[in-house]
């Protein structure tokens, strides 16, 4: 008879942004299965509540614990909002989150020759500024409370190799890598680890907007022969959140099925 492995995150509180769908929802579910209490945050408050419902709590009211979990609505790109979010999470759970996973992200694709400044600004605001604000607020909360933690930022393989029609997205995701590596250097002395994950093409609502003929072409380029699943990313997040990765910080882990290796 197989023995059940101990839950790796039994005492953890995890804040997940972009938790209402795709990778963020898969991460929330995976962390909860490992024993973590989850603060699920999304710009779409109803989607965050649905995630909490899937975690096993009613999620009937914003900020109200559903079992060990709670839903929050926030626009991470707005100045001051991530700091208020951290205060709300601390008030709800009586402690700062020891695991912070930034999954919130958007695309506004267009070729460089035609991209508007507004589309550039929106993507940078959510994908890069938002991660900066959440990382900063989480680090401040952890340092002030004397707690250790693990901050995990979702970048993209596009931030490393670029992609047609995504100058704004590629720039934002490249910025996340540099931000995370620098934060790792600064925060290690406080017992806070910072790592980034670089997904390839993952089957999410974001990739569902890509024309099928483009997805077919991309799939042929992936050595493993298929798109990734959000669970593939969530598994790596769980490893980086746990003490199994206790000596890893400043890393950028590619989850791509071998694409662009």
UniProtKB/TrEMBL annotation:
Presence of keyword tRNA-binding: no
GO BP annotation list: androgen metabolic process; estrogen biosynthetic process; fatty acid biosynthetic process; protein heterotetramerization
Sorted UniProt keywords: Fatty acid biosynthesis, Fatty acid metabolism, Lipid biosynthesis, Lipid metabolism, Mitochondrion, NAD, Oxidoreductase, Phosphoprotein, Steroid biosynthesis
Pathway: Steroid biosynthesis; estrogen biosynthesis; Lipid metabolism; fatty acid biosynthesis; Lipid metabolism; mitochondrial fatty acid beta-oxidation
Pfam family, one: adh_short_C2
Gene3D superfamilies: NAD(P)-binding Rossmann-like Domain
Domain of life: Eukaryota
Catalytic activity: testosterone + NAD(+) = androst-4-ene-3,17-dione + NADH + H(+); 17beta-estradiol + NAD(+) = estrone + NADH + H(+); a (3R)-3-hydroxyacyl-CoA + NAD(+) = a 3-oxoacyl-CoA + NADH + H(+); 17beta-hydroxy-5alpha-androstan-3-one + NAD(+) = 5alpha-androstan-3,17-dione + NADH + H(+)
Compartment annotation: Mitochondrion matrix
A GO molecular-function descriptor: NADH binding
Domain named Ketoreductase: residues: 12-205
Record EC number: 1.1.1.239, 1.1.1.62, 1.1.1.n12
A single cellular component GO annotation: mitochondrial matrix
Family per similarity comment: Belongs to the short-chain dehydrogenases/reductases (SDR) family.
Self-association state and partner proteins as the record states: Heterotetramer with CBR4; contains two molecules of HSD17B8 and CBR4.
Protein name per Swiss-Prot or TrEMBL: (3R)-3-hydroxyacyl-CoA dehydrogenase
Annotated organism of origin: Otolemur garnettii
